[in-house]
Amino acid sequence: MVNNKALSPIKQQIIDGDIDWTFTKEWLNSNDQDALCSAKLFKQQGNRIKKCNFIYPTIDIQQCNYPRLYPLGSIPCIECANARDDNMHVGLCREHSNQIKNILTRAAHDLQELIMKNTKDKNFTVKDIIKTTPLFDISFVDALPQSHPGYLLIHHLVPSDLTKIFNIYINDKKLRFSLFSKFFSTLMSSIDTLIWIRRASLIKQWENTLSITKNKKRFYRK
Ligand SMILES: [Zn+2]
127-155 in b/e burial notation, b at 16+ Cβ within 10 A? Predict the structure, then answer.
């Protein structure tokens, strides 16, 4: 896995064991109830797998697939124009950092409530633990650092930081799993909406100005 070139943006995190692979696998295979057994489910799971493998069709990948439709040369990020528009840049874009801070603040708050409601540990140390967990550290200025566990989250990978908290406070395995799944799916849906989908709609607008349409892609001949 570490030798996979596409995964080089998270190479260090893989080596350091920052990713909980068991829960990541569960997340990639899980489904929303309304998407059960449908094309929607297939697409949803496919998108997650592309995001965590850094092969989601960002502009650089589209440019390779449809070279005659896109401008030549390196195409900058639609939002900040400061880096190439590729998978690695998603989350690191400084235009994403306010959204990421909001998402993490809200997640920390929701997690604290969820744990306090469900733990048998009545010492309520959870608040302090969350406060000192690197995942919920929003003191970064400008863009999200690549080494921040939140970067994993943006790419649909479960940070060990997060499952550690569930492991400490929820002893019952079945309950832990179901609480985690519900919490994580809400969190990821806000990441998809505020980062990925927002980004995709900006790219679509930009493509429209260049007359790059879905139909042209569908009937593209290499
Ligand atoms: Zn950017």
Answer: eebbeebebbbbeeeebbeeebbbbbbbb
Q: How far apart are CA 92 and CA 204, in angstroms?
A: 20
Cα–Cα dist 24/171, whole Å: 20
The 10 Å Cβ neighbour count of residue 80 is: 15
* Dihedral pair phi/psi, residue 122, rounded to 5°: -90, 15
- Four-residue CA torsion sign, 38, 41, 44, 50: negative
Residues less than 5 Å from ion ligand 1, measured at CB? 77, 79-80, 93
How many whole angstroms separate alpha carbon 180 and alpha carbon 1?
26
What digits encode the pLDDT tens for the residues 131-176?
A: 999 999 999 999 999 999 999 999 999 999 999 999 999 999 999 9
Distance 75 CA to ligand 1 centre (A): 11
Q: Quick check: 222 pLDDT over 80?
A: no
pTM over 0.90: yes
CA of 107 to the centre of ligand 1 (A): 24
Q: Sign of torsion, CA 188 191 194 198?
A: negative
Q: For residues 9 and 147, is the Cβ–Cβ distance under 8 A?
A: no
| 77 Cα: distance to centroid of ligand 1 (angstroms) | 5
Cα(187)–Cα(107) distance, integer angstroms:
7
